[in-house]
Amino acid sequence: MSDQAQSDTPNAFGREDVTVVERIAQYDGFFQFVSLKLRHRLFAGGWSETFERELFERGNAAAVLLYDAKADKVAFVEQIRIGAVAATLPDGTKPNPWLLEVVAGMIEDGESAESVVRRESIEEAGCELQQLEHIAGYYPSPGACSEYIELFCGAMDSDLLGGLHGLSDEQEDIRLQIVDREQAWRWMGEGKLNNASTIIAMQWLQLHARRLQQQWC
């Protein structure tokens, strides 16, 4: 790699163009918080000075939007979220801490993303997935967090689902909300679906619902 990256070439730099000089553990609990001292190549050429950034490490996750292609319905899990409890919105208001989300869970050592969404669908929604299609993998907040999420759409039978779910030993209190896809899309426009995985999944579903109805029915 030359010092001068081509300005019209995306991803001209790679892993070899950044050096972590030191990693300092700040907190090690359910999640980890570390400080990294690093330096990297610059687009204009040469290397940056060594600088320090804090990093939140929570592991990787997998998520799935439950979709009944025959009934054209989606299912969301509704639960309280600590981030929303502590949040203040840009206009100064405090948001509702109960969010409507897709099913999701952390990927443990030795697990695949697919096995996680199948397990979490049973735990959070009482749903055994019939089909599974990958949507995307993405970083939800790469400026401060190392988490990477694998996102899927999974086939469900909405007639068999409903009620309350979650693991009591993990303090989960989850209500399943099943709605028409178009109603969910209206909720998007009204700001009622306000977390990244759910927004990305719903946008993807709007583009692919007709195809899934042909394939999954």
Molecular structure report:
This protein is α+β, with helices and mostly antiparallel strands and 217 residues long. It folds into two domains: 43 residues, no CATH class; 156 residues, Nucleoside Triphosphate Pyrophosphohydrolase (Alpha-Beta Complex), CATH 3.90.79. 23% of the residues lie in helices and 34% in strands. The chain has four helices and eleven strands. The strands form two sheets. Strands 4, 5, 6, 7, 8, 9, 10 and 11 form an eight-stranded mixed beta sheet that branches. A three-stranded antiparallel beta sheet has the order 1-2-3, with no helix packed on it. Helix 3 packs antiparallel against helix 4. The longest helix is centred in the C-terminal third of the chain and has 21 residues. It is globular. The termini are far apart.
Low-confidence stretches: none
Please indicate the percent range of residues in DSSP E strands (runs of 2 or more).
Answer: 25-35%
Calculate the mean pLDDT score and round it.
Answer: 93
Biggest sheet layout: 8 strands, mixed
CATH topology name of the largest domain: Nucleoside Triphosphate Pyrophosphohydrolase
Give the full name of the CATH homologous superfamily of the largest domain: Nucleoside Triphosphate Pyrophosphohydrolase
Which structural class do you get from the secondary structure elements?
A: alpha+beta
Number of strands: 11
Query: What is the level 1 CATH name of the largest domain?
Result: Alpha Beta
